[in-house]
Amino acid sequence: MKATQTIQKETNNSQVTERISGSEAVIKCLLAEGVDILYGYPGGAIMPVYDELYKYQDRIHHVMTRHEQGATHAAQGYARISGKVGVAIATSGPGATNLITGIADAQIDSTPMVCITGQVGSHLLGSDAFQETDIVGISTPVTKWNHQITKASQIPEVMAKAFYIARSGRPGPVLIDITKDAQFEEFDFKYEKCTGIRSYKPVPKTDEATLKAAAEAINAAKKPFIVWGQGVILGKAEDAFKAVIEKAGIPSAWTILGASAVPTSHPLNVGMVGMHGNYAPNVLTNDCDVLIAIGMRFDDRVTGNLASYAKQAKIIHFEIDPAEVDKNVKTDIAVLGDAKASLEALLPLLEEKTHQEWHQRFKDLYDVEYEKVIKHDLYPTKEGLTMGEVLKEINIQTKGDAAIVSDVGQHQMVACRYANFNKTKSNITSGGLGTMGFALPAAIGAKMAAPDREVVAIIGDGGYQMTIQELGTIFQQKTPVKIVVLNNEFLGMVRQWQQLFFEKRYASTEMVNPDFVAIAKGYSIAANKVTKREDLKEAVKTMMETEGPYFLEVRVEKEGNVFPMIPTGASVSEIRLE
Amino acid sequence: MNDNIQYTVFIYTENNIGLLNRISAIFQRRHINIESINSSASEIENVSKWTIVVELSEERIKKIIGQLEKQVEVIKAFYHTEDDIIYQESSIFKMRSALLFEERQIQNIIKESNARIVTVNREFFVIEKSGRKEEIDMLSRELSVFGIMQYTRSGRIAVTKDEMRISTMLREAFLHH
């Protein structure tokens, strides 16, 4: 019987078939997909692949993290800064389950990642063998696709599909589980890249009439407002996007994953939307007449109460994933398709506009926020260092050229609010999942993918200790990342909520912390601690001027709060400044 | 407020291991109870067809369809109300053979319900009945008076009154890349 053709391959007639083991085939697949770095941790069921990694170490650099979760976040950091597929590898059982947090993070933040796990021999499947776990079952809800390989001959096609699925359309994580016998088995290897899967349409076709309707609505708008998300970055649409907002003169705000697609200093960049976003874009969301959402998914942290979100506005949604349309916010015009292609097609249909009065509204509200919040964050007069002034110093020293990798919590919101971004792919953070412990390993991956860029990790004292073991990876790999821990001796964001909504009952949020500088020094990482305002500038300068990795702890005020803030259940326009 | 409607969902998929888990997880995650589920071969070689019955609002079922179609190995998903489809369920009942002689009305019940006897032996006989849910419910109620040894019913299976263009879609799948 002729097998049904379900995938389309790049024909490669020049490549000859060779007889090799499944594990060597895995390496050859990775090389064929352009993988030069992968992150992982060895163990019994993946040993044959590690044996091949040893033989191929001149061509593919394996970074041994200190925990498999670190491997996934490093692969994510690598992917987020480079736009390429990040790769993580682990053994069966606990090695595989330790990947799950990173996979779930990559799924919700649309990060292209391929995870490879070893599995017990196929004859042992389902027998509760040593280090056997049903990782395909476990990872199903948090992967874009996953598959178990039990025969070496399946490796090339499955690996080709894995990379194609991870990077195409709306990207995401893929997990491939390979039984140990399939790794040992020899077969005739030939690699053909996947170029299509019949059941999978990564990019929906853009409808011209819909695009025209969108252009007409934008042209007719008096108070148009754009909220853009990571889709602009993932779709490599930064230039097309900038051209659109400049021609149509539309004030544009970003979700945290969209940050840096347009420089912070751009006059049409009006800041961040959402729970701790800027005042003007949140308030004016409920005043615009046309809201144009581009490559974003109306997350609840962005919209606040949906019942009072932009009800007055006509909603236009540019989106690659049809499942996102009407999911949270009912759309009037949905333009499906690739962001770059759609925006390029939109541009000639737009009229040149400036919307000066409308812009002034944003500026006026910015001034309100500046007086009430920003001034006190960046130029505090009270005792106690603020997180904001640390960011300000980093901006000065890096001139806004660094990639900022933040963890989760108060420092993350402060980093997103105050970091200056000159270049795209500069804000690497765990958005949707809110994974504490993300930043340190993600910074490692980011620095390795972009060695010419400064990578500064901004981390709270809580999240830092969730993956602090990755200092070992930095030590061994000599990865020149700059690590800034903003230490308030609290799980600050939870404490802020306890203060505001739980009558200051600080249940399990106070941290008794170790000597972080001594720990960094234990890994031979240059380290310093700042407790006074007058020492901050010099300390940040020294950090940035030091070659190699550097750790800087800044003791910030213990009970500082992040404002503005949209309380849970409130509308975006009810954002609080204090 | 309950604006739930019974929908029959059809999902055309590749025939791959693990899809049951992936599809059921979409419902489970949203705390949606699956009333019945059936997976089988379809009119197209190597393509599976799933028939799932759920009770939901139209707004929610639309989102579920979006999530289903987002899966790499799902070719296409549809939702229908009962008016759009022709459907059947199947059931089999195992009863004590002695009843056939002791309880004359059993034969009438079988005849009137358009059920059929699949097999009879010394100990037991087996009745098969296909039809709408209510018909099977009624037969089950009537037979239960006499004691049912075993009873199994299938999930809904259905076809649409309108044409489904899956074959065309599959043929064209590679043309747009």
UniProtKB/TrEMBL annotation, chain A:
| Pfam families registered for this protein in UniProt | TPP_enzyme_C, TPP_enzyme_M, TPP_enzyme_N
Q: How is the cofactor bound?
A: Binds 1 Mg(2+) ion per subunit.
**Which cofactors?**
Mg(2+); thiamine diphosphate
What does the record give as EC number? Answer: 2.2.1.6
Domain annotation Thiamine pyrophosphate enzyme N-terminal TPP-binding: ranges = 21-136
Q: Does the keyword Ligase apply?
A: no
Sorted alphabetically, which Gene3D superfamilies does this protein's record hold? 3.40.50.970, TPP-binding domain
Broad class of enzyme this protein falls into: transferase
Q: Which GO terms describe its biological process?
A: isoleucine biosynthetic process; L-valine biosynthetic process
Cellular component, GO annotation: acetolactate synthase complex
Q: Name one GO molecular function term.
A: magnesium ion binding
Record keywords: Magnesium included? yes
InterPro entries membership:
Acetolactate_synth_lsu, AHAS_TPP, DHS-like_NAD/FAD-binding_dom, THDP-binding, Thiamin_PyroP_enz_cen_dom, Thiamin_PyroP_enz_TPP-bd_dom, TPP-bd_CS, TPP_enz
Q: Can you state which reaction this protein catalyses?
A: 2 pyruvate + H(+) = (2S)-2-acetolactate + CO2
**Pathway the protein contributes to:** Amino-acid biosynthesis; L-isoleucine biosynthesis; L-isoleucine from 2-oxobutanoate: step 1/4; Amino-acid biosynthesis; L-valine biosynthesis; L-valine from pyruvate: step 1/4
What sequence ranges are listed for the domain Thiamine pyrophosphate enzyme central?
A: 211-346
| Superkingdom of origin organism | Bacteria
Q: Which UniProt keywords apply?
A: Amino-acid biosynthesis, Branched-chain amino acid biosynthesis, Magnesium, Metal-binding, Thiamine pyrophosphate, Transferase
Q: Where are the transmembrane segments?
A: none
Q: Can you give the residue ranges of the Thiamine pyrophosphate enzyme TPP-binding domain?
A: 407-554
Query: What family, per the record?
Result: Belongs to the TPP enzyme family.
PANTHER family noted in UniProt: ACETOLACTATE SYNTHASE CATALYTIC SUBUNIT, MITOCHONDRIAL (PTHR18968:SF13), THIAMINE PYROPHOSPHATE ENZYMES (PTHR18968)
What is this protein identified as?
A: Acetolactate synthase
Native species of this protein?
Subsaximicrobium wynnwilliamsii
State the encoding gene. Answer: ilvB
UniProtKB/TrEMBL annotation, chain B:
Name the SUPFAM superfamilies on file. ACT-like (SSF55021)
Q: What is its EC number?
A: 2.2.1.6
Q: Coiled-coil annotation: which residues?
A: none
Q: What is this protein called?
A: Acetolactate synthase small subunit
Keyword Amino-acid biosynthesis belongs to the record: yes
Where does the sequence pass through the membrane?
none
Partners and quaternary state? Dimer of large and small chains.
